[in-house]
Structure to design on (312 residues):
């Protein structure tokens, strides 16, 4: 935070001197002291939040230095470097398009960080990627779309609310790019659908809000107008939700449009019978009940009753 306030003050008042300050700070990015690398990376990350780096033709230099920190031994430095790269979306949005492929690759690497026990680097990568997506070329994201969707999926059920929120918001943002990969991405939507619907009962309001957003974004890609309308009308942020009634109607549309999905939807729900969150644990059997209620007889044979009964 000190770096943030110092930096915004310098961006406003020390413009002409910044190139020299940046030039003198670059060597400290390779300092043997973690504290120096952390402070300089934090300072650069904040500086990238301002358009002044663009005006002073510092953007490329600083971006290369942030990218270079991705292999830093210190986790905090790696996290701050990703924050800096994500900040380009607000500081110099017009430059994101030009460097899109490179920035996206950095975010994907951040999500795959192997030495990140508390997923702080992954969290930064996901929130930065959400910021960048509005400005990248579609072709740059297309090739990574599937990898990212699969990679973030486990975070939907993380014990950490900020990871649940960030991954779900990112998933919603990714759906904007699904048209070229419609069938492939539709599969990802089906994989996440039960989780997103159950987490509408999440104990954290910010996660519920993220689920509403993601489902509204998924709706148009599902090829079912009734479902799309329901998500848009009932999952507005300012509207409270009557969950049971909503799920009853959702299941009716699901079984009219995708009756062959019944068993798959049931199996995913069974997993949540053992959820740590009581409201989600309660929502899963209700979800299954409504699915079975609305499926026609010929598709009912899909249900493995033994499995359902032993899922208690």
């Amino acid at each position: 935070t000190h770096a943030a306030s110092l930096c915004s003050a310098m961006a406003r008042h020390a413009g002409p001197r910044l190139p020299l300050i940046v030039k003198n700070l670059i060597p400290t990015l390779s300092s043997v002291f973690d504290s120096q690398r952390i402070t300089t990376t934090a300072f650069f990350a904040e500086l990238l939040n301002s358009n002044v780096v663009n005006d002073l033709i510092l953007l490329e230099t600083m971006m290369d230095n942030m990218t270079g920190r991705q292999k830093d031994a210190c986790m905090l430095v790696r996290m701050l470097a990703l924050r800096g790269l994500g900040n380009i979306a607000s500081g110099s949005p017009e430059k994101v398009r030009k460097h899109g492929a490179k920035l996206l690759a950095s975010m994907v690497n951040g999500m795959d960080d192997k030495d990140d026990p508390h997923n702080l680097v992954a969290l930064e990568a996901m929130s930065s990627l959400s910021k960048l997506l509005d400005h990248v070329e579609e072709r740059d994201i297309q090739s990574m779309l599937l990898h990212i969707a699969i990679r973030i999926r486990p975070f939907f059920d993380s014990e950490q609310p900020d990871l649940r929120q960030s991954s779900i918001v990112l998933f919603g943002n990714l759906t904007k790019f699904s048209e070229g990969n419609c069938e492939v991405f539709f599969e990802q939507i089906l994989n996440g659908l039960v989780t997103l619907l159950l987490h509408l009962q999440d104990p954290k309001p910010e996660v519920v809000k993220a689920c509403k957003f993601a489902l509204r974004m998924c709706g148009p890609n599902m090829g079912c107008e009734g479902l799309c309308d329901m998500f848009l009308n009932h999952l507005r942020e300012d509207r409270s939700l009557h969950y049971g009634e909503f799920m009853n109607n959702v299941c009716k549309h699901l079984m009219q449009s995708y009756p062959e999905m019944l068993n798959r939807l049931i199996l995913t729900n069974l997993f949540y019978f053992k959820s740590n969150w009581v409201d989600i644990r309660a929502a899963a059997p209700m979800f299954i009940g409504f699915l079975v209620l609305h499926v026609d007889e010929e598709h009912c044979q899909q249900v493995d009753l033994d499995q359902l009964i032993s899922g208690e």
User: Anything to note?
Assistant: The chain has 20 helices and no strands. The mean pLDDT is 89. The two ends are 49 Å apart (CA to CA).
